[in-house]
């Protein structure tokens, strides 16, 4: 399986990061990843259909928020916290500090 | 002309605010409003077509970021900074602190 493409930290766009976080499923995934070292897609999908979740992971990867690595047959996901912090200081911390919307 | 509807501060959604700020035109409008007390749509449209800009103002109003008031025949826009701050402490400051994307 081909490795996923991920943008370099220097290529990240504020608008794209905000868009990626403007969806409650994607925000949940990022909140979960902020609490753990790494997680499989299955641990993060909340029982949602794979096709739906795959799309959300793609948006998160393309925004530079999530790194997905193929480890054998499973995909491990990590939050690119250091990259986001270096490009947008304080941004992710401020967003993750907010309570989930009602 | 009917007054515009604006959500109460307690009704604001994090995802909706992030979505509203995920577009470079809307982000520019909010950056501009953060520097001034109030501005007309014409002062904020950057020469863009009125139909385009009207849509962006609607998204910003519905997210609770912008208050539009009819003052005679002109519309004055203000950033709802205190409302956003009360609902999402530190969020807007962190976003506005970022450099505009390349």
TrEMBL record, chains A, B:
Keyword DNA-binding in annotation: yes
InterPro entries xrefs: ArsR-like_HTH, HTH_ArsR_DNA-bd_dom, HTH_MetalResp_TranReg, WH-like_DNA-bd_sf, WH_DNA-bd_sf
Gene Ontology terms for molecular function: DNA binding; DNA-binding transcription factor activity
Keywords annotated in UniProt: DNA-binding, Transcription, Transcription regulation
Pfam families the UniProt entry points to: HTH_20
Listed SUPFAM superfamilies: Winged helix' DNA-binding domain (SSF46785)
All residue ranges annotated as the HTH arsR-type domain in the record: 6-99
UniProt-recorded name of the protein: ArsR family transcriptional regulator
